[in-house]
Amino acid sequence: MLYQNRITGGLVEVVSQHGEGILMCLDANEEVIYIDEDDLTPHLDATMEQERNETRLTESLAAEGVKPAKPSKKETFPIDTRVNINLASARQIADALPGVGLKTARDIKDLQLTLPGERFSRLEQLKGVKRVDWEEIFKENLVRVE
After folding, report:
1. Does 29 share its domain with 74?
2. Best CA proximity match to 25, nearest among 9, 45, 5, 53
3. For residue range 92-107, what is the model confidence (pLDDT) as tens digits?
4. 4 contacts 45 by C-beta, under 8 angstroms
5. Would the N or C end of the chain have less CB density within 10 A of its end CB?
6. What share of the chain is helix, strand, coil (3-state, %, to 5)?
7. Tally: H helices and E strands in the chain
């Protein structure tokens, strides 16, 4: 089962539990991260896509004679089409988000440069740019900050 991290918007797979309410998870890059279980929401569409990818790749590997025909998690993880604010250019942000023009997108990137590591670490940090209806964008699940 895949989950969406409410803090960053990223997709993760739970590996195990570590202590009270802390879960060890793998992200799309197979990096281990620890997340409070209250910050995770089940994501059924991504889970079904991952299962379809695994079935397709397993059949393909078996047809090629690869044994065992087991694709890696990195290969089966669904492609995330939401805009990653940390990696996108101002133009990409303006093109991807409704109601966000190039000037506002530049303001988003300027805000990013003022943050530690010059990266957003939580979706809530985006609310520092007031001209955007962030609640609607978060509701429509259009962005992430991984």
Report:
1. yes
2. 5
3. 999 999 999 999 999 9
4. no
5. N
6. 40, 20, 40
7. 5, 7
